[in-house]
Every structure is written in C-alpha cells, then in structure tokens.
Amino acid sequence: MDAVAMADERGIELTCDINYRGTLWKYPGANARQSLAELMRYSSFVFGDQNEWYMASGLEPIPFTATDDTYRFDLEAYARYFDKLHKMFPRCKRMLIGHRNQLSFQHHVNAAVLWAEGKIYTSRFYDIEPIVDQMGVGDAWVAAFIHARMRWPDDDRLCLDFSVSASALKNTIPGDQNLVTEAEIMANLNGSGGRIDR
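^ that's the sequence the OP posted. Answer follows.
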C-alpha cells in the first residue's frame, strides 16, 4: 500500500488485476476483500473474472451460462452491477469482467464485458475445444488489454476484443507464455465462428 500511495502521489496511473488466490491470504490478520478493495480504490483499470470481482466487492456475480454464440448478455443487469461497482470504486475508469463457462475439462466458452466510463461493451464468444493449457490465460488477457490500450487508446471496443482474442488463443498454447503475435491475435479476432483451431 505504501508503494501504491507513492505512485498515486506522483500521478502514475494504476491498473489492478484482482487475481485472487485463496492460499495467499492464509496468515494472521489477512483480509482479502478489505485489502483488494483498498488497492482497487487507487486504480483506473480493474480486471478480474466474476468470482474475483465477487471476492473484492461482495456483489453477487451475474451468471454466465453461454454454451454457444446464441447467448445474450443481460445488459440491464450489467448496468446495475457496474453502477454499484463504480460507487464503490469511483476512480475506476474501466472495469473488465472475464467469463468462462466450462462445458467440460477440454471445452470452454469464453467472453468478457467491459465498462468504460459509463459505456458497456461485450465481446464475441470463443468456443474453445480442445483446451491445451489454461495456465496464464488471465495474464494473457490482462497483458493484451494493456497493450491494446497503449496501441489504440481511443477504441475501447477494439481493446476488449483484442484482449479476449489473445486469451482465447492462450488456451491453445502449452506453457505459461502466450506465444502469439499482434497479427495473429488480430487474425483470430477477425475470424468467423469463434472456434479456435490450431
């Protein structure tokens, strides 16, 4: 928190990847929700899946039950949800929620929702089968969004779509690193059907 406060005093914009891991909080005096919320209050961008957002905010997540691209996000429910979150974290300009419906161990449907200064964007759905390696998927998503914000700072929709495309590709790559290029992410983003075939 000292480092976060110092960065804030110097006008450095902060991003928070909630990335909650229960075993990291098993020591005396630890309170994950309180600590995460305190860090998030300094952040302009916050990322997490629906369970991580629940851990940090205490707000019940909106169920994600997509099995294919006919699923429709309940935008009114998300508007209410993000309104509550923004009241909790008023400095936050962008909030991202990653969604994964695990149809089986090797078959997932992924998507994401972005709140950007009052506007809500939803991504396309990625029907990923087979899953090769889930390790690093969240990191790939966050890194791709930050990269996209630096590359296309005025296009929130493209930033969202780029990040979800990158994370979808990571599911098909063994190991921790997302070994893909920007061009490959864009080609996947612009492909049809949302099914990853590597």
